[in-house]
Amino acid sequence: MIGAGHAGLAVSRVLSEHSIDHVVLERGEVANSWRCERWDSLRLLTPNWQSRLPGYPYRGADPDGFMTMPEVVEHISGFAETVSAPVRTHTTVSAVRRINGGYHIATDDGELRCRCVMLASGAANIPHVPPLHEAVSGHIECFTAFEYHNPEQLPAGGVLVVGASATGVQLADEIHRSGRPVTLSVGEHVRLPRTYRGHDVLWWMESSGVWNQRYDELDDLERVRKLPSPQLIGTPEHATLDLNVLSTAGVEIVGRLGAIRDGCALFSGGLLNQFALADLKMQRLLDTFDDWAGNSELAVEVRPPERFAPTRVPTSPRLSLDLRRGEIRSIVWATGFRPDYRWLDVPVLNHKGELRHDGGVVVDAPGMYAIGLPVLRRRKSTFILGAEDDARELVGHLAHYLAQECPDAVNPAAPSWSQAADL
Ligand SMILES: Cc1cc2nc3c(=O)[nH]c(=O)nc-3n(C[C@H](O)[C@H](O)[C@H](O)COP(=O)(O)OP(=O)(O)OC[C@H]3O[C@@H](n4cnc5c(N)ncnc54)[C@H](O)[C@@H]3O)c2cc1C
Questions:
Q1: Cα 140 from chain centre
Q2: SS3 for 332?
Q3: SS3 string of 50-67?
Q4: d(CA 342, CA 353)
Q5: Closest CA to 176 of 277, 107, 239, 246
Q6: Using an 8 Å Cβ cutoff, are 95 and 105 in contact?
Q7: What value, to the nearest 5°, has the Cα angle with vertex 161 and ends 272 and 122?
Q8: Ligand 1 pocket at CB < 6 A
Q9: What is the pTM of this model?
Q10: pLDDT per residue over 268-326, tens digit each?
Q11: Does pLDDT of 409 surpass 80?
């Protein structure tokens, strides 16, 4: 197993249930991404009761609250301890190669051989920044979501936040509250209210079955896997954070950043269409919830259906912004994340560098699996509550593979991995 985030640890727990010998290699500490790669004020956007892992529900006093990063680290570390996950921390995997009968794993702390390998190294290892960032002149300070920790880091003056999904709206809100003028560049986005008919919107996503939709039942899987994260924030007030909230607060909304030419940022004029599309999709999702509520005994204590005002289109949104004038002093790129597979020496990536897999079963690499990627086996796959179902199905596949290909490996007396020197 490569990676001791919640997904790798969930798989570890299920492997132990199957008595399949394994080791979890982690380059940092357990829950490393939450310790090292998130901004200071971040809270989960999923409510605490949804942070359940196999056999490990949330047991705190605030099931409807949203965990801070130290609380997430504590929760995941507590899970690792409870299930006695065999984690080797501070062990970075530098290469994975195919060998006869399995895989050779090179790390900065020795080498291993194993029959199966589970890639649980995360879906958000590297912030994605569009190539046009190269045209930003040096006097503007740029930050990715990994480099940004709090507004005090930013120079005084205007800030351009590029991207309006969960990260972008949260950072635009925080930076605006720090007193800096914020311009938010908005492309395709997913609008959601924090609460709907008296329940958290993610309660609806789970209860109605939307989050449980399987990857092999979705019409356009590739598109669904690339959908941006929803415009949501977890706050003690359970506040909605959409573009109407931000523009009312004074954030300037502009279209998608299309180019930087001669020192000017050029924005798309398609805000009307972007907003109409996001409003329509939200409306359809709420219709789905209403249909489900009308037919389900689970939908108790729900209030009458609600509808939300359309996203307000600015009267004359700016189409360009001269970055040389000094109005903008920094840019925060909230343009998404991607996995890092530079250490994977097995030909399993497509021409875009994406892992070729069928629901987490890696294509053309028997015994290799992946977990934690967007819509891996269900819409909920990348979230904490999505790990258990995926882990159970993938470990079921893996156990079957071991039983077929190397029957000795399912016998606990015959480890399915070993130090390379032992073989
Ligand atoms: C900003 C942000 C906010 C999010 N908010 C929520 C939320 O509110 N609720 C929710 O449910 N989900 C949320 N997610 C999604 C999801 O839970 C995280 O992406 C989560 O970290 C994924 O878990 P994971 O175990 O797959 O990967 P990670 O937690 O990233 O774990 C992967 C582990 O692999 C290790 N690793 C990577 N490469 C190597 C290597 N070569 N050798 C050894 N170890 C390696 C890393 O150090 C890391 O510890 C959020 C994601 C992001 C980016």
A1: 28
A2: strand
A3: HCCECCECCCCCCCCCCC
A4: 9
A5: 246
A6: yes
A7: 105
A8: 2-8, 25-28, 32-33, 38, 44-46, 92-93, 120-125, 167, 337, 343, 372, 382-384
A9: 0.94
A10: 999 999 999 999 999 999 999 999 999 998 878 899 999 999 999 998 999 999 999 99
A11: no
